[in-house]
Amino acid sequence: MANALKEEARAHRDEVRRREWREKSMYLTREEAAAGQPCRGCGLPVIDNLGDWPGTMSPEERDEYAAVKTRYEETHPDCGSYSWTMAGSRSRHCGFCCPPIPFSDSQLADVARIFMSSKPRDEDLDIWERTLTCGHRMRRPVHHTNSGPDFSTERCEECETTRGVVSSEKVVEAAARKSEAQRKRDEQLDRAELELAKAEQAAKEAHRKLDELRAGSTDE
């Protein structure tokens, strides 16, 4: 519970900060960042055009990298967040202090394509029941190849707020879902085969009656 409450407090803190960014219009567009406008959180360039840090650095580059790291740690000692940089830049920014830059159209298209191509089938999903700090429970589907849900917080629909997760329990195995899905497919196949057999029998009977009618017409 203590850890869940800690994660919940962190999530609430981040939500307040993101709301502040929106209300104060602190997000830069990609065009503004490319034009050289500084980050509205820390004041450093977002795109400095200095290039990525090389894999093998010279002594001067190592000193510069260490200085950037030290400056970041001194500026954000208690943020407890991740850091981020833009491709082709060396400025380091704080996930709590610095509003991120939105994805480009091509990046959004790539993400959408990945999600569309990797949409899992229901029978490949385990179902986990998660108990939240408020006492409410919610269920989340997770692909069977994962050991469990990744997130330490969830949006409680009853409280309408983010809550920490106290415990998670797998309540439906993907194997059971697969077995149930296969059983339903087998039932559908059996019904289809029965309907086909009835249709074939009806067709034979119709042909027989037609042949009788034709034979009677010939006799006359």
- Spatial gap, N to C terminus: 94 Å
Unreliable parts: none
Please give the share of residues in helix.
40-55%
Summarize the biggest pleated sheet: 4 strands, antiparallel
Question: What's the overall average pLDDT, rounded?
Answer: 89
**Total number of beta strands:** 6
Helix and strand string, N-terminal first? HHHEEHEEEEH
Q: What structural class do helix, strand and pairing data support?
A: alpha+beta
Radius of gyration: 31 Å
What percent strand? 15-25%
What general form does the structure show?
Answer: elongated
Number of helices: 5
**Strand ordering within the main sheet:** 4-3-6-5
Biased composition (Basic and acidic residues): 200-214
Region (Disordered): 200-220
Please render the helix and strand layout as text.
Elements: H1 2-23, H2 30-34, H3 59-75, E1 83-84, E2 93-94, H4 105-117, E3 125-132, E4 137-143, E5 153-156, E6 161-172, H5 174-219
Antiparallel strand pairs: 1-2, 3-4, 3-6, 5-6
Region (Disordered): 200-220
Biased composition (Basic and acidic residues): 200-214
Task: Supply the key terms.
about 45% helix, elongated, two-stranded antiparallel sheet, about 220 residues, alpha+beta, 4-stranded antiparallel β-sheet, 6 strands
